[in-house]
Amino acid sequence: MSHPGNLIFAQSGGPTAVINSSAAGVFTEALAHPETFGKVYGAHHGIVGILEEDFFDIGQEDPAELVLLKQTPSSILGSCRYKLANIEEDDTDYHKVLEVFKKYDIHTFLYNGGNDSMDTCNKISKFLKSQNFECRVIGVPKTIDNDLAITDHCPGYGSAARYIATTVMEIYKDATVYNIPQITIIEIMGRNAGWLTAASSLAAVMGYGPDLLYLPEHVFDLDEFIDDVKRVYEKKKQVVVCVSEGVRTSDGKLIPEMRGAVRTDAFGHKQLGGTAEVLGSIVGDHISTKIRNIELSLMQRCAAHLASERDVEESFAAGKTAVKTAMNGESDVMIGFARPQSDPYQCEMVKIPLCEVANTEKKVPEAWISHDGNNMEQDYFDYAMPLIQGSPKLILENSLPRFAQLKFVQAGRA
Amino acid sequence: MSHPGNLIFAQSGGPTAVINSSAAGVFTEALAHPETFGKVYGAHHGIVGILEEDFFDIGQEDPAELVLLKQTPSSILGSCRYKLANIEEDDTDYHKVLEVFKKYDIHTFLYNGGNDSMDTCNKISKFLKSQNFECRVIGVPKTIDNDLAITDHCPGYGSAARYIATTVMEIYKDATVYNIPQITIIEIMGRNAGWLTAASSLAAVMGYGPDLLYLPEHVFDLDEFIDDVKRVYEKKKQVVVCVSEGVRTSDGKLIPEMRGAVRTDAFGHKQLGGTAEVLGSIVGDHISTKIRNIELSLMQRCAAHLASERDVEESFAAGKTAVKTAMNGESDVMIGFARPQSDPYQCEMVKIPLCEVANTEKKVPEAWISHDGNNMEQDYFDYAMPLIQGSPKLILENSLPRFAQLKFVQAGRA
């Protein structure tokens, strides 16, 4: 393959514990091929960094710090929630991307994100082609939500799942310690897909799982919920419930919407949270007992200290594979995972056309959720348990995590 | 010393990550001396288990499971919030304790808890003496709050501090990732003492500490707080605030009291929580930006997966020392820690009269808090950093923690 010019990598969407592990894979692989890539750039704040010519020369970073990316949560280059306009309505951003790519001789664009980002990738790739600008565009998946289509699972999910399962075990021990009845409601992220809430059931394998769990895949019936909680409460006096922030009643309402307004973000998605609080308040109207509401909040997506080693290594491999795929001259694909067999677990990198993953959402199969909608079936355990395996050997200082410290040498705005 | 009869151990108060490490120390040491202790009992739900003759024969447990207590959070025997009556008003419970101790030939009573529990210990000890019943009563300290008098620090604090510092680092990375301004308010436990909130500042040593922190030791001035947040916001656009649930305004009000009622527990302590939420709402009235409120909730006191190894081992040693102290015929003391030197760190077990720790509270020294009340001084780092050191080598199954599984062979209610 002829000299493909420079490479730019950008991170988008919500942080995960391992998004930087993919960055480490991309940087390591790309920098190992100076004969192929002239410069390796990292865009500041995702696509915004490209539009604003704000990006860093990764070749000037200390390789040891790049390795530390594997244990550094969130997005080292910064992220964005910027949504490209519909090209038919406004093509300004697309022309700006083309201009920047031309100016900086960028012919390889790797974008790390979820389904919104794959859509962005796809649109940019189509536009560049329409302008006869040669550029390999590769998506690197990332989302704790695990909701990308076709791929067996997503980088970020295994680590979030391990955090959730471990934390639910610990909370269970705490919440059931007193000789006093208590209902504990734990709110877990997940806008439309219940993968993260499902992960709480992995705690049950160890004996400390939630008594009840509720996923957005199932219509949330408030009366059934109250009945479920009452039944367990009467039997055990201590109830641990895990609920997805995204559960909706039969009329399509989110729980916080039952008690007030909900904001929306730049993508038009509803900003959630407050589900456990509202449910706790409703339960309190029916059962007079101690009720505690807990949100796993940002912790569930940035707990690199409790990452799944398998997730870290697969995310790293996805980054490397993205670079290799570009070097093969391929484009318009997202790197995905296939699982040729489950026991023992095997994972293979596959290439999925961007158009097949853009703006789609993979939900938890109905058959993996128990018939009454408040527990998980064995199929889910078989699927998820391999994904949370392994504890990364963390480099610590003062017994605290040592995050990568980059120099961020500005290479844009020349 | 003559045969001291049987030993009973009970756990009280709020859970910690290492309270069971002290239990492991007590059980291991007591069971190693069958010539001294006839039976080793564990009371179910603290003092309530004694009153209700509900306790377990620990000698029948698998020793390997007792070792696993060192990585099992919360209180394996269960806890209670039961408050003994004032003996002048009602001595029923005290006579019941005496009756049970006589019935089961119990002459050694070890109680694991915070200052309320040391008060309970002290009252029972005095009563038993007044009845000429020989019993060695030893307190084993435990509290994430670190507020027990005289002892240099408390078992449970180091682990909670390590969890808080690590988690604040991770949240900091997540909360500052976007090119969008954001104010993140993290609420940390601590009714009257700010030790736990102070621990968030340890994250700053690694470069990811809160911009501002507020302890209950300092009067909380709402105007100053808003000014502080505004100042940092104008400079950085992203602000991370850590605030103790126990901060009070100059008229003695807790933050949640500014917007509604606050419940009280069996000890008459106000049930806190909601501080970050109320402060977030107030900040939102002054600064129009994205605001996120996070409660570290129960996770900060039960995160055994992120325990400080030093805390685990010191807690274990405190349990062993309590047994040895009873074997020496001593009584009416709590095992405490002294620090002969800080660098390198040394810790010695000491015995502190129960009456000196009962119902007292040790606060963060004013000199360790910065003059403007929103940061910590070097003295605090020098004090706290040694306490969070070391990662316990956890035994995992399925990459999830393996908690101790006891048989709980009932030995009371005969």
Q: Can you give a write-up of this model?
A:
2 copies of one chain form a homodimer. Chain A has 414 residues and is α/β, with parallel strands linked by helices. Chain A contains 14 helices and 13 strands. Chain A has helices at 19-31, 47-51, 63-68, 92-103, 115-130, 157-175, 195-199, 202-205, 222-236, 275-286, 299-302, 309-327, 354-357, 378-384, and strands spanning 6-11, 40-43, 55-57, 106-113, 136-141, 182-188, 212-214, 238-244, 290-295, 333-338, 348-353, 396-397, 400-401. Chain A has a 7-stranded mixed β-sheet, sandwiched between helices. In chain A, α9 links the parallel β7 and β8 (238-244). Chain A starts with 5 loop residues before the first strand and ends in a 13-residue tail after the last strand.
Q: Can you give me a brief rundown of this structure?
A:
The structure is a homodimer of 414-residue chains. With 414 residues, chain A is α/β, with parallel strands linked by helices. Chain A contains 14 helices and 13 strands.
Helix-strand layout with pairing:
The structure is a homodimer.
Chain A: E1 6-11, H1 19-31, E2 40-43, H2 47-51, E3 55-57, H3 63-68, H4 92-103, E4 106-113, H5 115-130, E5 136-141, H6 157-175, E6 182-188, H7 195-199, H8 202-205, E7 212-214, H9 222-236, E8 238-244, H10 275-286, E9 290-295, H11 299-302, H12 309-327, E10 333-338, E11 348-353, H13 354-357, H14 378-384, E12 396-397, E13 400-401
Parallel strand pairs in A: 1-2, 1-4, 4-5, 5-10, 6-8, 6-9, 7-8
Antiparallel strand pairs in A: 2-3, 10-11, 12-13
Helix pairs in contact in A: 1-12
